[in-house]
């Protein structure tokens, strides 16, 4: 019977060893399953974070695009205002020329020339507007240029005609 007890004990030890091995294998499998589940959850978390980041980037891009469109709109608006200002400046120039032409039509040539010389003096300075410069620009003699300059200086001292203000051309 000893043999049989030994066989039983050996069988029991073998069964216990197999059970322990099975428990250990089950525990390793459970730990591996838990590790895989944790890895899967971490991956899902990274995917959600990446999706969230992608949404944030898309929102930032849309916001940037909106800012760029607003800036372009403001630039177009500024260009339009500038074009309007330029048009108004050209209109003012044309109106001034029309006033000048009307004034010239009502004014004797000598008076008109004196106003031109006054405008030249205002623009360039009295020392730069010599008799020769006046003679060349008006197409008159130096003596006539002297008379036109004297009249222009009178106009500049306050004896200007109320019907005409010199316009610089």
Automatic annotation (TrEMBL):
* Organism for this UniProt entry: Streptomyces achmelvichensis
What's the name of the protein? Answer: Uncharacterized protein
């Amino acid at each position: 019977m000893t043999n049989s007890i030994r066989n039983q004990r050996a069988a029991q030890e073998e069964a216990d060893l197999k059970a322990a091995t099975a428990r250990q294998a089950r525990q390793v499998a459970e730990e591996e399953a838990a590790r895989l589940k944790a890895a899967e959850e971490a991956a899902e978390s990274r995917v959600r974070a990446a999706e969230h980041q992608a949404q944030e980037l898309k929102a930032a891009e849309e916001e940037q695009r909106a800012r760029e469109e607003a800036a372009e709109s403001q630039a177009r608006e500024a260009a339009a205002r500038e074009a309007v200002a330029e048009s108004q400046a050209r209109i003012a120039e044309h109106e001034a020329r029309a006033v000048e032409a009307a004034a010239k039509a009502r004014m004797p040539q000598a008076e008109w020339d004196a106003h031109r010389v006054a405008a030249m003096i205002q623009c360039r300075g009295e020392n730069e507007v010599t008799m020769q410069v006046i003679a060349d620009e008006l197409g008159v003699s130096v003596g006539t240029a002297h008379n036109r300059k004297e009249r222009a200086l009178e106009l500049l001292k306050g004896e200007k005609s109320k019907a005409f203000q010199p316009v610089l051309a």
